[in-house]
From TrEMBL:
Record's keyword terms, sorted: Aminopeptidase, Hydrolase, Protease
GO biological process terms on file: proteolysis
Record's keyword annotation contains Cell division: no
Location of the Cytosol aminopeptidase domain: 11-123
One term under GO cellular component: cytoplasm
Similarity section: Belongs to the peptidase M17 family.
Superkingdom to which the source organism belongs: Eukaryota
GO MF entries: manganese ion binding; metalloaminopeptidase activity
This protein's name: Cytosol aminopeptidase domain-containing protein
Organism annotation: Strombidium inclinatum
One Pfam family here: Peptidase_M17
Alphabetized PANTHER family for the sequence: CYTOSOL AMINOPEPTIDASE, LEUCINE AMINOPEPTIDASE-RELATED
Amino acid sequence: KMIGVTKGYEDKVSVEVIDSEKLQELGMNLFHGVGRGAVVPPRAVIVNYKGNPDSDEVEYALVGKGVTYDTGGLNLKPTGYIEDMHGDKGGSVAVIGALQGALELGIKKNVVFACGFAENAIGS
């Protein structure tokens, strides 16, 4: 979804996807560890929005947590809690919404939008 929001705005954004292997190379082992057991490996997505082409200065940065589903690992959550464990993605959803707003409104600021995405489930 985050990358999809940037379609049509390629002249204003650059996108970097940090895959599971690169997360480990960068020493982001805790983040990598959360999602390493899932079918879809963890990754981070960084979108650099260039709203002010006359400046290289980044004026704002928004960072969001995107644990898309959190079982606690091997389904460690008790009954009554597991059904709603998709709430840990709220930070990333807010960042994606802000990115979409910045693009559609054409704000004149340089902003970095970054999200880490992982699923905390084993063999899901």
